Each structure stands twice: as C-alpha cells, then as structure tokens.
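Board notes, transcribed. Complex of a protein with flavin-adenine dinucleotide.
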Amino acid sequence: MSTSVSDSDQSTSAASESSWQKRNCPADVETLGNAAWTLLHTAAAYYPDRPAPSQMESMRTFITTFADNYPCWYCKDDFKKAMEKEPVRVGSRKKLSEWLCRRHNEVNEKLGKPAFDCTQVFKKWVENPECNDS
Ligand SMILES: Cc1cc2nc3c(=O)[nH]c(=O)nc-3n(C[C@H](O)[C@H](O)[C@H](O)COP(=O)(O)OP(=O)(O)OC[C@H]3O[C@@H](n4cnc5c(N)ncnc54)[C@H](O)[C@@H]3O)c2cc1C
C-alpha cells in the first residue's frame, strides 16, 4: 500500500489548516471586552441581594484580581483608576450591578458609544422576557 501524500492531499490539508486558523483567531480587545463584560454583568446580576460577609469579600477579591489580570494594559489601567475613585460596591446585587454599569458607561463614553440606561441592567442581564431562558 502506498503511503505517499499526493500534491492534492497536501493542498487540501493546507487549505483546511488555513480555514481552521481563520476560525480560531485569538481574542482582540473587542471580543475580549464583550466576553468580559458578559461575565462581569452576569456575575453581578446573580449576586445575592443580601450577601454574607464572606460573599462580599469574595466578590471584592474577584473584581480586584480581575482588574489586576485583565489582559489589555490600557483597559486595566483605566479600570483600576476608576476603582480608586469609586471602590467596588459589594453590599447588594443592585449596588454591584449599578457600580459595574457606571464603570462600563465610562468605557462606552471613552469609545464614543452610547451610554446604557442603568435602570435596565437586570432586564438586559437576567430577566428579559423576550429571551427563551430568562
Ligand atoms: C474592564 C474593561 C475595560 C475596557 N477598556 C477598554 C478600553 O480602554 N479601550 C477599548 O477599546 N476597549 C475597552 N474595553 C472593551 C470595550 O468596553 C468593549 O467590550 C468592546 O469595544 C466591544 O464592544 P461591544 O460593542 O461588543 O459591546 P460591549 O461594550 O462589550 O457591551 C456588551 C453589551 O453590554 C451591554 N452594555 C453596554 N453598556 C452597558 C452598561 N453600562 N451596563 C450594562 N450593560 C451594558 C450592551 O447590551 C452591550 O451589547 C474594555 C472592557 C472591559 C471589560
């Protein structure tokens, strides 16, 4: 049985490798940001109304270490500066969600995007009746 690879097999394999690469690009600042905001707002939307002290400490640590490790240096620097001006509010689901909404709106403003109405955070992130699973 022949084990040689034909020219046509090689070019098919190169084309499929190239196609795989195009479908598996590393995250850029936009895709990373969109995914990161989804995680943050969703975590806030499911945070307790009345968190125990340990839950508050855990969330404060999560947000702080998130900021320390966010893999976009200028995003991280501005986010940390914003946190110095207004430390994260972990007292309740509403306080945390609104705090995050304000931080996100600061980035929206910097990027020339419209501000999000922070009274709608729960509708967007947890209870939109138009969506199947909320
Ligand atoms: C901490 C952090 C800092 C960032 N800093 C920068 C930066 O300095 N420069 C930069 O170019 N990019 C930055 N980004 C990325 C940027 O914010 C966007 O995520 C990215 O531009 C993609 O935008 P998008 O249109 O997909 O919507 P996104 O801004 O990612 O928003 C996703 C969805 O969240 C909802 N949403 C929008 N605003 C709010 C809000 N205020 N509260 C609740 N929900 C909201 C909307 O439904 C929107 O579709 C940062 C991201 C993070 C997480």
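Residues 29-30, 33-34, 36-37, 41, 70, 74-75, 78-79, 101, 104-105, 107-108, 110-111, 116, 121, 124 surround flavin-adenine dinucleotide (CB under 6 Å). Residues 93-110 form the longest helix (18 residues).
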